Amino acid sequence: MVTMTEVARAAGVSVSTVSHVVNGTRLVATATRERVQHAMDMLGYQHQPTARSLSAGTNRTIGLAITVATNPYWVELIQGIDREATRAGLNLIIVDTRDDARHESVAVANLLAHRIEGLITAPADGWRELTLPMLRDHALPYVLVDRITPDLRVDQVGVENEAATIAIIDHLISLGHTRIGMLSGIPGLSTSTERVHGYHAAHQRAGLPVDPELILVGSSTTDGGRKATWELLQFDDRPTALFAANNSMAIGALAALSAAGVKVPADMALTAFDDFPWADLFSPGLTTVAQPSAAIGARAVQLLLRRMNDPDAPPQTVRLPAEIMHRQSCGCVSR
Amino acid sequence: MVTMTEVARAAGVSVSTVSHVVNGTRLVATATRERVQHAMDMLGYQHQPTARSLSAGTNRTIGLAITVATNPYWVELIQGIDREATRAGLNLIIVDTRDDARHESVAVANLLAHRIEGLITAPADGWRELTLPMLRDHALPYVLVDRITPDLRVDQVGVENEAATIAIIDHLISLGHTRIGMLSGIPGLSTSTERVHGYHAAHQRAGLPVDPELILVGSSTTDGGRKATWELLQFDDRPTALFAANNSMAIGALAALSAAGVKVPADMALTAFDDFPWADLFSPGLTTVAQPSAAIGARAVQLLLRRMNDPDAPPQTVRLPAEIMHRQSCGCVSR
DNA sequence: CTGCTTTGCGCAAAGACTTGCGCAAAGCAC
DNA sequence: GTGCTTTGCGCAAGTCTTTGCGCAAAGCAG
Fold first, then answer.
1. pLDDT tens-digit profile of B273-312?
2. What ranges do the domains of chain A cover?
3. Cα angle A111-A112-A116, degrees, rounded to a multiple of 5
4. Which of B51, B91, B259 is closest, CB to CB, to A54?
5. Which one of A113, A290, B31, B228 is least enclosed by Cβ atoms within 10 Å?
6. Residue A193 near residue A220 (C-beta atoms within 8 A)
7. What Pfam families does this protein's entry cite (chains A, B) (predicted)?
8. A114:B49 CB<8 A
9. Looking at domain B161-291, which CATH architecture does it have?
10. A46 touches chain B (CB under 8 A)
């Protein structure tokens, strides 16, 4: 492996000078700089940030701890983070948390061992007990994405769950629906509770009573969505519209409805949180709430950068607006 | 940050002893070892593999360079690699290649900077020119997954594309189909060509002629699949069955067929490569070729381990068998 | 008790890089 | 020409860990 020492010898300068041209940390005469550059090219010098991090304690690398899941929302989030990190000159390395607090903590320990200087994470349930203490021990700057913890003073980015839910429920109400079923996500996650809040708020605003029986837990899975939908279909006083709090449950709902021979949107209107690329390939096309995943990711990187530069900055919670993608399943017959 | 020096002082031993108890590299008297352990616990010592890699040149970390995509196949592959790496005591860090050779090379350079000791990658087109030379320069052990390059003597793992395709086409033929349309993937990738080979081989074996017009490029995307299907529907002598070479194209096909009012499987049988969780939620359920993604990932890790231990071992190409998931879309009315 | 082996541990160099300090040369005003 | 400021660069210490070498103590056979 070719080291700075060799480059220095080849260029006839000291290693400190080589270091300074590599990092641009102090002025180096143009002629000297070019000699060094040339020597590096000749020898094929490869910088070793890992050694730098030893002495300088910095390597421009941030970590992302997230669950690697098939959900397009996560994938776009990761892509958004990756792109923004690249733009900011940061290296990004990713580890899988498996959405499990125990595994999350070992994954983060792994990142820590690689001397990351900041962390972005979509915390699993149990994160506060297992992972957070490690981050504090290391005084590592971090920001939370997707899942917001309101009672914690930390930097975090998510979508406007409540407002978006209100908007879509509102839409259903304006179409004349008064009994709207809801399939809610994994209990305990902030995203789940916020969406339920939105459901209530929309009803209240419209002066409509909420029938608590219409809110079923679908646990964010396809199977959970299917079962919950099936239950709703058993009611004497069936809902006429359905809102699934994420895309997997929506797919489950779709399956249950078609199995039961319920026509969408004629017999039942259907809407969902989370857009996905083939949402309009179903017939009818699914009306969804599209999260700005990439923007959320980018914003997370920016927050992290800010925190890395100023550890004492006041913590910030950012909410990005979502967009309703009108298709056919809601029955409003647009396009 | 607490270093070995501090632990050593606290335990009243030298740093070398601390290092040896941490790594188990030489015999340390039980009493001493316990003192050191205790000191580490008290001080909350965190090992710094990055510093080790400086002097010892090893840190037990491997990298994964892969495209972070919504395709469930990739996701399961990543999960398989992650689990097997954990089992083997290896740390895994992931970077996104965006399935683009240029970006892939910077991502790999990033990994290299973190002193990984091995790499698993699903190479993008152009990999041989941009990334491979870097790997060779660094003498880095690596293994390829998913995409097999037959003319390169390297370690690689993939699925039996040809055999699996033969099996599924055979199934269609046995159901009486003689004109079978094929939607093929991104041209140039080994997976694509192998599946086309399988298509031909199955026909040959059955003594059936191949009509080249029936093989259309769908480029592995939903949209490509839809367009190609639409074209096939225009033929006077329409195919009676369809085989999509990946899941995205299958979804596109499904969309095109339903838009055209073609009933599956009555008017057109449909099968596809790549299973996905909600394949049986469509009606009819999609008959697919399921790849053992997790097993492929695990195997890749094993191959890498072997190569890391023995750089001169003969390169190995591993093919894992796929499984046909019979559902309704093929028209064979199983279950 | 002597001399040899084994067991247990410390010393110090090495590994690749950064950076505070300080020196020398050049530039400049007077 | 003199004295002061810039500009440009080298020296060497420091970062955390590993490991070859070698020393001391303990164990043991004779």
1. 998 877 777 767 889 999 999 999 999 999 998 888 787 8
2. 4-158+293-320, 161-291
3. 80
4. B51
5. B31
6. no
7. LacI, Peripla_BP_3
8. yes
9. 3-Layer(aba) Sandwich (3.40)
10. yes
